[in-house]
């Protein structure tokens, strides 16, 4: 279903660009709808049920949009399209793909930086510069600490993982010894 989610995400990104919408606001409003969708079993049952008419589902959407502060009509219409096409179950994945698509179009990329201990400002700056050089994009970092790395850093950019951790080096040495 990833291909379907990507298709809807790209379409919404096109709407945001073509209508000169505030992308950050649209994504924030979509995230609030995703949170409500994920938190409410009843909402998911209603929106995903083939027994309930799309018109009734859209009425629930309108009530929810008012409640969570969705002010952008394009955001509401986007969710309505997902409801009408029986794709609303993909909502969380579509919004995640939308964020990735908007970042890509804006020359930005998300990076998860995992280190054994908290990195200092100089280390963060050096690491971000290197990731930016490798990807050619502005890096939006998310820092995580994981003491099991022993030392070093692992960076996840999309599906690519750069493993500079001591744990990773030990695993590679172990694998080489097994293969020898």
Rg (C-alpha, Å) = 21 Å
Sheet having the most strands? 4 strands, mixed
CATH architecture title of the largest domain: Orthogonal Bundle
Helix count equals 8
Trace the largest sheet across and list its strands: 2-1-3-4
Shape field: elongated
Distance between the amino and carboxyl termini: 41 Å
Q: What low-confidence regions span 5 or more consecutive residues with pLDDT below 50? A: none
CATH superfamily of the largest domain: N-terminal domain of the delta subunit of the F1F0-ATP synthase
Structural class: alpha+beta
Number of domains: 2
Descriptive overview:
By secondary structure, the protein is α+β, with helices and mostly antiparallel strands. It has two domains: 2-104, Orthogonal Bundle (Peroxidase, domain 1); 107-179. It contains eight helices and four strands; from the N terminus they run H-H-H-H-H-H-E-H-E-E-E-H. It has helices at 2-18, 23-39, 41-48, 54-68, 73-84, 91-105, 121-135, 166-179; strands spanning 108-115, 138-145, 152-157, 160-165. Strands 2-1-3-4 form a four-stranded mixed beta sheet, with helices on both faces. Helix 1 (2-18) packs across helix 6.
């Amino acid at each position: 279903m990833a291909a379907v989610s990507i298709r809807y995400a790209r379409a919404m990104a096109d709407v945001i660009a073509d209508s000169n919408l505030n992308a950050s606001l649209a994504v924030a409003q979509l995230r609030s709808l995703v949170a409500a969708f994920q938190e409410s079993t009843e909402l998911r049952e209603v929106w995903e049920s083939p027994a309930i008419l799309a018109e009734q589902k859209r009425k629930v959407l309108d009530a929810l949009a008012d409640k969570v502060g969705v002010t952008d009509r394009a955001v509401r219409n986007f969710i309505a399209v997902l409801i009408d096409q029986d794709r609303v179950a993909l909502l969380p994945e579509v919004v995640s793909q939308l964020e990735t698509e908007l970042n890509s179009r804006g020359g930005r990329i998300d990076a998860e930086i995992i280190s054994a201990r908290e990195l200092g400002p100089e280390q963060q700056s050096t690491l971000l510069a290197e990731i930016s050089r490798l990807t050619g994009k502005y890096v939006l970092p998310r820092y995580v600490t994981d003491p099991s790395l022993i030392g070093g850093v692992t960076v996840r950019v999309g599906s690519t993982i750069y493993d500079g951790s001591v744990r990773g080096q030990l695993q590679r040495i172990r694998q080489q010894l097994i293969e020898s």
